[in-house]
Amino acid sequence: MKLLEESSRTDLAPLFQRCALAVLASGSEIDDAKTLFETYKDFRIDIVREPFGVRLDIENAPASAFVDGRMIEGVREHLFSVLRDIVYVAIEVEAGRLRVESSEAITDAVFSILRNSGVFETSTHSNLIVCWGGHSIPRHEYVYTKKVGYELGLRGLDVATGCGPGAMKGPMKGAAIGHSKQRQYRGRYVGITEPGIIAAEPPNPIVNQLIILPDIEKRLEAFVRTAHGIVIFPGGVGTTEEILYLLGILLEPENMDEPLPVIFTGPESSRSYFERIDRFINATLGTDALRRYRVILDDPEAVARAMIDAMPEVRAYRKRKGDAYAYNWRLQIPHDFQMPFEPTHEAMAALELRLDQPVHERAVNLRRAFSGLVAGNVKERGIREVEEKGPYRLRADAQIIDPLEELLTSFAEEGRMKLDGSYRACYVLES
Known about the structure:
Blueprint: H1 2-5, H2 12-24, H3 33-39, E1 44-50, E2 53-59, E3 66-67, E4 70-71, H4 73-94, H5 103-117, E5 128-132, H6 139-154, E6 158-161, H7 170-181, E7 189-193, H8 195-198, E8 209-212, H9 216-226, E9 229-232, H10 237-250, E10 262-266, H11 271-284, H12 287-290, E11 294-297, H13 300-321, H14 335-338, H15 345-350, H16 359-378, H17 380-389, E12 392-395, H18 398-413, E13 427-430
Parallel strand pairs: 5-6, 5-9, 6-7, 7-8, 9-10, 10-11, 12-13
Antiparallel strand pairs: 1-2, 3-4
Helix pairs in contact: 2-4, 4-5, 5-9, 6-7, 6-13, 10-16, 11-18, 16-17
């Protein structure tokens, strides 16, 4: 606790305060980290030593975190998950034994953070379905995500998401009902986040295992290594970043035989969304990328059946390869995908987006570009930098710019950028 108390000499205390406020603000309609911190600028949380642990003293917290003057139990659990992960990363990863220079060391660090969180403490090793999708989606898409989650829950599958609202909350809510009907009382609703995004996407109340990775790259690695299947709902720039990360990895020759089922799904009304995503992937990553996923529209049962039918193959493959059921060690993730990218104006302008690049490099840089757009849209530092220096500038081949502009324009027009519908572009595209 000494690290957190010495706020004058470490960034740890303010980091904990920001993440704690995000957890306490769960359920708010604010998806702008800068606005959240300004709204609760008088918020304070202090860590007090106790004989057998610590106590958190809180002032000026969001009222929604309390009922009759007492903190909601789920919020309290999330607060201590934040404390657990921030301290563990600072001691064991950033200043301790888990150095993260090499690709193998990064994978070890991600595993250690997950293990310390208790996410592997279960007798069920092959049933975690990662669900990706946007936090700002229309009501009919949200209802559809609940239906898919319900069908997954009925079949005994657990759910992991980015832990926020929208397409991250819906599958968990549906799965909880499905689990309840099957009298499965130990369902896992795993929320995986990172400090930069947690304020814009606070943990929804269904999450019962909250894990905070130190950056977006380790968060993405945690998703793909714990997943036994991945379902992708409609979303915005964050979801596209996740898609590019996943497909870039699955296109690696060493991963061509990896039996990881990937399904894009939504209601029939979302058909045009997935058609645009298909066009963008085809134009930027090629036809091989299209073969790494299926699109299932308006059929939650078919999505869930596809996932449960794939589980025996996933288990058999990992058993045959001598891999762990709960953590996919054999999946090859190139080092460029693991290295943290800081989306400054200079870094965004320097990204090379060309069709004559190897597909691996193009996928890495496209993922970084979308990571920057997420930062400029909802992350505190990114929003402030765009306000001070103007929009990010992205340069790309004309063959990439056109589908990219089509995709981003559609996200803004369909309200997939911000919960309140107001969006001012944080980017300029140049060819």
